[in-house]
Design goal:
alpha/beta, TIM Barrel, Arc Repressor Mutant, subunit A, three-stranded antiparallel sheet, 23% strand, globular, binds iron/sulfur cluster
Length: 379
């Protein structure tokens, strides 16, 4: 089964930490964008036409800016082009200010069964620092509305490590969300990109990110809290109640195929990886279906290393033999002395052919990945 990703590059305001490719929504022609997106879907490479698909993910940007009627058009193109299963996961990333009861009813009526709210923090001062346009109160209203709606899975994204973020407030925010009945929580650590407003404020000394130690402790305490609440810590940054893992994101983490539509969207199918050129103007000028494809010609060994590292983000870890069959004998086998070293250092566990990170290994994952990188790729 293949996964389908629909990229929506519009946002109303750029958040202070965001360095994604996106454009301001105001004055832009959403209808024209959706027409181009549908054109691209309908002109999919014949190799993939009619393939069975079991996940559809609307991401961005802010796909919740799309009026339901336009979203319906995209889903119709998908159903006409692929064999979309009746139990497919159809997910939408949403900003809290876009979700209220009626909109949620409409989305559920179209088949959307998963929403993820970009809450980021429940501290109004920090929401201001991030330039988010919602308040904590509005975010909780959206969570309550989503919970009361027919949408099956309700998730939220939070960021840890914000400048001046208090430990108690951060944990209380997580408690509030868990108490409000969310099924899925993603905890991202703040990344500071130099070309963003936040990056410039940090460079000028106006804001200071939390020290790494404080962030690591906060992340561990947050994970403990969620696990005590019944959440499974199934991926480094992701927690789900049983039955609510993100099936679409699991495709990325388990080396499965997906097709991305829209400028800058990535694809991995038929043994190839590529991305769409990030050129919105060309896309809108009626050439959605002919968008330039940028091939990613990585050698097999690098692909194998990427699959290994991505799979290690999961609590289940990876099957080393399956990876070696797919990507070659350059990848470590279960008896590799390097893995024994990492296991002695308490960073990994090897059970049969399965390799997984320990809790300490998750915290130091970059160090583990560096040591596992094939020597040829380090030069
Ligand atoms: S809503 Fe998301 S994509 Fe849009 S500016 Fe904010 S962080 Fe970036």
């Amino acid at each position: 089964m293949i996964g389908l990703y629909l990229h929506f590059p519009y946002c109303t305001v750029r958040c202070s930490y965001c360095d994604f490719y996106l454009v301001p929504a105001r004055g832009n022609d959403l209808r024209g964008y959706v027409a181009a997106l549908c054109d691209e879907i309908r002109r999919v490479d014949p190799r993939f036409r009619g393939r069975a698909a079991d996940t559809v993910s609307f991401g961005g940007g802010t796909p919740s800016l799309l009026p339901p009627a336009l979203l319906a058009g995209v889903l119709e193109s998908i159903r006409d082009t692929f064999a979309l299963g009746g139990d497919a996961e159809i997910s939408l990333e949403a900003n809290p200010e876009d979700l209220e009861a009626r909109r949620l009813e409409e989305l559920a009526g179209l088949g959307v069964n998963r929403v993820t709210l970009g809450v980021q923090t429940l501290d109004d001062r920090l929401l201001g620092v991030l330039r988010r346009s919602h308040t904590a109160w509005r975010a909780m209203q959206a969570v309550a509305a989503a919970r009361a709606s027919p949408v099956r899975s309700v998730g939220a994204d939070l960021i840890l490590g914000l400048p001046g973020q208090g430990r108690a407030e951060a944990l209380a925010g997580i408690e509030r969300l868990a108490g409000a009945g969310i099924d899925h929580l993603s905890l991202y650590l703040l990344e500071i990109h130099p070309r963003t407003r936040l990056g410039r404020a940090v460079a000028l000394g106006r804001l200071a990110p939390l020290p790494d130690e404080a962030v690591a402790t906060l992340y561990e305490e947050a994970a403990d809290l969620l696990v005590a609440r019944g959440f499974e810590h199934y991926e480094i940054s992701n927690f789900a109640l049983p039955g609510h893992r993100s099936r679409h994101n699991l495709k990325y983490w388990t080396d499965q195929e997906y097709l991305g539509f829209g400028p800058s969207a990535h694809s991995y199918a038929g043994g190839e990886r590529w991305s769409n050129a990030p050129r919105l103007r060309a896309y809108l000028s009626g050439s959605g279906g002919r968008i330039e494809r940028l091939d990613d010609p990585q050698p097999r060994s690098v692909r194998g290393a990427e699959a290994l590292f991505t799979g290690l983000r999961l609590s289940e870890g990876v099957d080393l033999e399956a990876l070696r069959l797919r990507y070659g004998r350059g990848l470590p086998a279960a008896g590799d002395p390097l893995l024994a070293d990492l296991a002695r250092a308490g960073l990994v566990e090897v059970t049969g052919n399965r390799l997984r990170l320990t809790r300490r290994g998750r915290l130091l994952s970059n160090e583990v990945f560096e040591r596992l990188m094939p020597p040829a790729q380090l030069t």
